C-alpha cells in the first residue's frame, strides 16, 4: 500500500472538495426559506432524488464495510447487502407515501399530523437525534481512521476536515447542496464499483462460474467460504440482525427525509425506482468487491490494514488498477462519507430546530427568517456535538453503533409510524410509549450485548460477560416497541375517530387545500 | 409552500370524503394489497436466515460451485426489483381512483 500522500490521491481529494464547494456556493443562492433548507423546496426530479437516495443510503458501511465483510466471511458478509436492499420494499410499501402525504420536514411532523401534542413531537425528535448522533459517530470515527490511513494525517485533523466539510454544505447550501453532494457521490461510487468489478471479472476470464470455482480454493476456508456460517453461527443472532436491517431502514430519519424533497407522491415513487435499481446493482457488485479482495489481496493483508476489513475495497483497487485507481477509490470513499454525514446533520438539525425549537418552544409562531436561522444554528449544534463525540471515541470500537442506529430506528420509529397510519384506536399515550419503549429497550439491550461486553480485553468497550448473546437485539426490541405502543394505547381512554378519518383521507388521497375548490 | 397559504380559507370536510363508498373501497383494497405483498416479501426474506441457520438445504451446489444460497439471494434481488415496479404500477392506478374520489367530493359526495 502506498504510504502517505501521493500526487494523484491529493488531486482526487482536492477535486472532490472543490467540486462540492462550488455546488454549495451555487446552492446557497437558492436557499432562502425553511422549505428550501430542509427539502430543497421540494423541487428535485425523480432521477435526481433517486440518485440522492442512493447516495444517502450507500454509506461507508455499505461500500467499505460490506466489501470487507464479504472478503473476510464470504456469504455471511453478503447478508448485509440483501438486508439493506429488501429494506427498501418496507419503505416503499408501508411508509413512503403516507409519510409524504402527511409530513412536511420531519418524522415528527407526520406523527403530529395526527396527535398534535408536544410530548409526541418531543419524543419523536429525541429518537431522531439519538439515531443521528449514533450513526454519525460511527461514520466520523470511520472517516477519521480511513483518511488518517490514506493521507497520513492525524486522526483529529481528519475528523475536523470531514466535520468542516459537512457543516459547510449544510450550513450554506441546505438540502440542495446536500442532495447534489449525494448525487455526485452516487455516480462516483457506481463508476468506481463498476470499474473494480469489471477488473475482478476480467481476472476470472469473465466467467461467474470460474469465479465461484476459484473462490473455493482462494481462501483458507475452502468451499465453506461460499456458504453461510463463517461468521454467524447462532441462528437467533443472525435472524435478529436481519430483522434490524430490514425494519430499521424504514425508520432512519435521514432516509425518510428524502421523500419530502420531491413535489408529489408520483415523483417520490419514480425516485424510489431509480434508487432501488442503483442500490440493487451496487449490492450485487459487492460480491465482486469482496471475492476480488479475498482472492487478490488476501485475508492477511486486509486485516493488517484494518481489523474490520474496511480497507478491502481500496486495497483491491490498488492490486488491480495501481495507484490511480487506489487514489480514485479512496476519494470515492471520502465522498461517500461526506454525503452521508451531511444528510445526517440535516435530519438532526430538522429535529432540533424545526421540531424542538420551532414547534415546541416557539409553538409554531416563528417567521420564515427565524426558521432558517434556527435551522443553521441547529446544524452547527448537531455538527459540533458529533465532532466532539467522534474525537473522544477514537479508540472505541464503534462499528456496532450503525447496527444500534438501525435497531433504534426499527424499534422506536417504525412501530409508531405504522400505528399512526394504520391503527384507528392508536392515541397520544400509545405514541409516546411506543417510541420510549423502543428507544429505551434498544439502548438497554445493546448495553448488555456482546458489542459492549467481551471477556477479552480490546474486543469490546468493557471487559466482562455479555448479559445477552444477541449482537443486535432487534428480535426483542422491535416487538417491545410494538407492544409498548399497544399497551400504552389501551391504558388511555383517549380516542379521536374524526382525526383518524382526516389522517386516513390525507394519507390515501394526498389531498390538500390546493386540490379542492370549495 | 406558497400555494398552501394562498387558499387558507378553504376547509376540507374529511368526514365527508371518509364516508364515500368509493373511498372506503379504495382504502380496503389498497391496504390488503400493501400488507399481503409485505407479508410475502418479509416471509421470503426471513426464510433465508432460517434455512441457512437450521438446515443445510441451501448449502448444496446448484450450478458448478454456486450453491443454492446464492440462487435464493438472487431471487430476493429479482423479487425486490419486480415488487418495486409492481408497486408503482398499482399506485398509479390508486392515484386515478383518489382523483375520482376528490372529484366526487367536490360534487357533493359523502355529505349527509
What does this structure look like?
Chain A is an all-alpha fold and 518 residues long. Chain A contains 19 helices and two strands. The longest helix of chain A is centred in the middle third of the chain and has 50 residues, at 312-361. Chain B contains four helices and two strands, in the order αααββα. In chain B, α3 (21-54) runs antiparallel to α4. Classes of the chains: A mainly alpha (518), B mainly alpha (112).
Topology pattern of chain B, helix = H, strand = E: HHHEEH
> Which percent range fits the helix content of chain B?
over 70%
**Main beta-sheet strand count, sense and barrel state of chain B:** 2 strands, antiparallel
* SS class of chain B: mainly alpha
Q: Give me the Rg of chain A, rounded.
A: 22 Å
Structure summary:
Chain A has 518 residues and is mostly helical. Helices cover 75% and strands 1% of the residues of chain A. Chain B has a two-stranded antiparallel sheet.
Strand and helix layout:
The complex is a heterodimer of chains A (518) and B (112).
Chain A (H helix, E strand, L loop, with lengths): L6 H22 L5 H6 L6 H12 L2 H14 L1 H28 L4 H6 L5 H34 L3 H49 L4 H11 L16 H14 L4 H4 L8 H32 L2 H7 L6 H50 L6 H25 L7 H23 L5 H20 L5 E2 L7 E2 L10 H18 L5 H13 L9
Parallel strand pairs in A: 1-2
Helix pairs in contact in A: 1-8, 1-14, 3-8, 3-12, 4-5, 4-12, 4-14, 5-10, 5-12, 5-19, 7-8, 7-14, 7-15, 7-16, 7-17, 8-12, 8-14, 8-15, 10-16, 10-18, 12-14, 14-15, 16-17, 16-18, 17-18
Chain B lengths: L1 H5 L7 H6 L1 H34 L6 E3 L2 E2 H39 L6
Antiparallel strand pairs in B: 1-2
Amino acid at each position: 500500500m502506498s504510504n502517505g500522500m501521493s500526487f494523484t490521491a491529493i488531486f482526487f481529494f482536492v477535486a472532490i472538495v472543490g467540486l462540492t464547494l462550488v455546488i454549495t456556493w451555487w446552492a446557497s443562492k437558492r436557499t432562502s426559506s425553511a422549505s428550501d433548507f430542509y427539502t430543497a423546496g421540494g423541487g428535485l426530479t425523480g432521477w435526481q432524488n433517486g440518485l440522492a437516495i442512493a447516495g444517502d443510503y450507500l454509506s461507508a458501511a455499505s461500500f467499505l464495510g460490506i466489501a470487507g465483510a464479504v472478503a473476510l466471511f464470504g456469504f455471511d458478509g453478503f447478508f448485509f447487502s440483501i438486508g439493506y436492499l429488501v429494506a427498501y420494499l418496507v419503505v416503499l410499501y408501508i411508509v413512503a407515501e403516507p409519510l409524504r402525504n402527511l409530513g412536511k420536514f420531519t418524522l415528527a411532523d407526520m406523527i403530529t399530523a395526527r396527535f398534535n401534542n408536544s410530548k409526541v413531537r418531543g419524543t419523536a425528535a429525541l429518537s431522531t437525534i439519538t439515531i443521528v448522533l449514533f450513526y454519525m459517530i460511527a461514520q466520523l470515527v470511520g472517516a477519521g481512521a480511513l483518511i488518517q490511513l490514506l493521507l497520513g494525517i492525524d486522526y483529529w485533523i481528519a475528523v475536523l476536515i470531514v466535520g468542516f466539510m459537512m457543516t459547510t454544505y449544510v450550513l450554506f447550501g441546505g438540502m440542495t447542496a446536500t442532495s447534489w453532494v449525494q448525487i455526485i457521490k452516487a455516480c462516483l461510487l457506481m463508476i468506481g464499483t463498476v470499474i473494480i468489478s469489471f477488473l475482478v471479472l476480467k481476472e476470472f476470464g469473465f466467467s461467474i462460474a470460474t469465479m465461484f470455482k476459484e473462490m473455493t480454493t482462494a481462501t483458507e476456508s475452502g468451499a465453506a467460504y461460499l456458504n453461510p456460517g463463517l461468521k454467524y453461527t447462532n441462528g437467533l443472532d443472525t435472524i435478529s440482525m436481519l430483522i434490524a436491517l430490514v425494519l430499521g431502514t424504514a425508520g432512519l430519519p435521514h432516509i425518510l427525509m428524502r421523500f419530502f424533497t420531491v413535489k408529489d407522491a408520483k415523483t417520490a415513487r419514480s425516485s424510489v425506482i431509480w434508487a432501488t435499481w442503483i442500490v440493487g446493482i451496487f449490492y450485487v457488485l459487492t460480491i465482486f468487491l469482496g471475492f476480488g479482495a479475498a482472492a487478490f489481496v488476501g485475508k492477511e493483508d486486509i486485516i493488517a490494514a484494518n481489523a474490520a476489513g474496511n480497507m478491502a475495497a481500496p486495497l483491491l483497487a490498488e492490486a488491480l488498477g495501481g495507484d490511480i485507481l487506489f487514489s480514485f477509490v479512496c476519494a470515492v470513499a471520502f465522498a461517500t462519507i461526506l454525503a452521508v454525514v451531511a444528510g445526517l446533520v440535516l435530519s438532526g438539525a430538522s429535529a432540533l430546530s424545526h421540531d424542538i425549537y420551532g414547534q415546541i418552544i416557539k409553538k409554531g409562531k416563528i417567521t420564515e427568517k427565524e426558521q432558517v436561522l434556527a435551522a443553521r444554528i441547529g446544524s452547527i449544534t448537531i455538527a459540533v456535538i458529533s465532532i466532539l463525540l467522534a474525537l473522544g471515541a477514537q479508540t472505541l470500537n464503534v462499528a456496532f453503533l450503525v447496527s444500534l442506529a438501525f435497531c433504534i430506528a426499527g424499534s422506536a420509529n417504525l412501530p409508531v409510524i405504522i400505528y399512526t397510519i394504520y391503527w384507528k384506536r392508536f392515541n397520544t399515550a400509545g405514541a409516546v410509549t411506543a417510541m420510549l419503549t423502543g428507544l429505551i429497550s434498544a439502548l438497554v439491550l445493546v448495553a448488555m450485548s456482546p458489542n459492549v461486553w467481551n471477556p477479552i480485553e480490546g474486543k469490546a468497550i468493557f471487559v466482562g460477560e455479555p448479559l445477552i448473546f444477541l449482537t443486535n437485539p432487534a428480535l426483542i426490541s422491535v416487538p417491545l416497541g410494538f407492544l409498548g405502543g399497544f399497551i400504552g394505547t389501551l391504558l388511555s381512554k383517549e380516542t379521536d375517530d374524526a382525526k383518524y378519518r382526516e389522517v386516513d383521507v390525507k394519507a390515501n388521497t394526498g389531498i390538500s387545500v390546493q386540490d379542492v375548490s370549495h | 409552500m406558497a400555494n398552501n397559504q394562498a387558499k387558507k380559507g378553504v376547509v376540507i370536510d374529511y368526514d365527508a370524503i371518509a364516508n364515500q363508498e368509493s373511498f372506503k373501497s379504495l382504502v380496503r383494497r389498497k391496504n390488503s394489497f400493501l400488507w399481503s405483498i409485505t407479508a410475502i416479501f418479509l416471509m421470503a426474506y426471513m426464510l433465508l436466515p432460517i434455512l441457512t441457520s437450521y438446515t443445510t438445504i441451501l448449502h448444496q451446489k446448484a450450478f458448478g460451485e454456486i450453491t443454492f444460497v446464492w440462487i435464493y439471494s438472487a431471487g430476493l434481488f429479482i423479487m425486490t426489483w419486480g415488487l418495486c415496479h409492481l408497486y408503482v404500477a398499482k399506485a398509479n392506478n390508486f392515484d386515478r381512483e383518489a382523483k375520482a374520489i376528490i372529484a366526487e367530493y367536490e360534487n357533493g359526495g359523502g355529505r349527509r
